[in-house]
UniProtKB/TrEMBL annotation:
Protein's name in the database: PHD-type domain-containing protein
Zinc found in the keyword field: yes
Transmembrane segments: none
Domain of life: Eukaryota
Domain PHD-type: residue ranges: 14-126
Keyword Cell inner membrane annotated: no
GO molecular function, one term: zinc ion binding
Species lineage: Eukaryota, Metazoa, Chordata, Craniata, Vertebrata
Sections of the chain in a coiled coil: none
Pfam family, one: PHD_G2E3
Domain RING-type positions: 141-190
A GO CC term attached to the entry: nucleus
Keywords, comma-separated and alphabetical: Metal-binding, Zinc, Zinc-finger
Length: 286
């Protein structure tokens, strides 16, 4: 499973995680960055390396001595994915000596379980779903509607409850990040308990947070009405961003998508016309 790709090196000026050596890691993969004098480390890099932070007075205190020992040990281990040293995560299978960086896990088809003891497994010893049947030819992912292929693989998963809902690993991971622990269910049969436990065992990170669609900031862009003339040639002297309240320079929005607009005059509409469709909705020939 050795990769020819070298991990991205950060510039010497950037403070990096002591365990993975990266500065700009995705927080959904590596967790929040924890700080201490002279050191910083990603939350999940810490737990996956079997190091527990110490809660004190409402904050997380980094166990500096334990981190230093782990870094020293990791510098002696080569990542089984990227080939570089500094791999602080070791396969939880007894007798297996493979180690890897958290950010290399996906490329190496390794699994890290984001719960309990945060156990990690290499590509050979990772947990497998119980299903023995590959998806039927022509089966599509229920999330992106693209084919999942006709063979069992690390990149495809099936619901353990209904056993017919297939999806790509990346697609179901994105759904888990959006839904959060309270709303993450099988997209087909809506099973919760069995589905969530299986997904967690298979390395899907289900964050303990509210759904992204409950966040008011996610809705704010949807509440802003389009206010720009998108005609190929805008004739209004005030420009595309300006419009009158009535008359030839009134802005009319597409009656189908409301995502494009035009001044009446710019699309040769009469002052009584109140319905108009943009080219994308009506078609260029209409």
């Amino acid at each position: 499973m050795m990769s020819n790709r070298k991990r991205k090196a950060s510039s010497w000026e950037e403070p990096v995680c002591a365990l993975c050596g990266q500065a700009d890691a995705d927080p959904d993969v590596c967790g929040h960055t924890l700080f201490e004098i002279g050191i910083r480390v990603h939350e999940f890099c810490l737990t996956s390396a079997n190091i527990a932070s110490e809660p004190r007075a409402g904050t997380q205190v980094l166990p500096l001595a334990a981190i230093a020992r782990k870094v020293k040990q990791a510098n002696q281990k080569q990542c089984c994915v990227c080939g570089e040293r500094g791999a602080a995560i070791t396969c939880a299978e007894g007798g297996c000596e493979r180690s890897f960086h958290l950010l290399c896990a996906k490329e190496g088809e390794c699994i890290t379980q984001y719960f309990g003891d945060y156990r990690s497994f290499c590509w050979e010893h990772r947990p497998q779903q119980a299903t023995q049947e590959a998806p039927a030819e022509g089966t599509d992912c229920l999330i992106c509607l693209e084919p999942v292929g006709d063979s069992l693989s690390y990149h495809t998963m099936v619901c353990p409850a209904c056993k017919y809902a297939w999806f790509h690993r990346d697609c179901i991971q994105q759904q888990a990040l959006s839904a959060g622990a309270g709303y993450f269910k099988c997209p087909a049969c809506r099973d919760y308990a069995l589905f969530c436990q299986e997904m967690k065992n298979m390395g899907i990170h289900i964050p303990l947070r509210d759904t992204s669609w409950e966040d008011q900031e996610s809705y704010e862009p949807l509440l802003v009405m389009h206010s720009r003339c998108d005609a190929s040639q805008c004739l209004y002297h005030g420009g595309r961003e300006q419009a009158a309240s009535t008359g030839p320079w009134e802005l009319i929005l597409c009656s189908s998508c409301a995502a494009e607009g035009t001044h009446r005059q710019c699309s040769h509409l009469s002052n009584t016309t109140d319905m108009w469709e943009c080219n994308s909705c009506a078609g260029l020939a209409t």
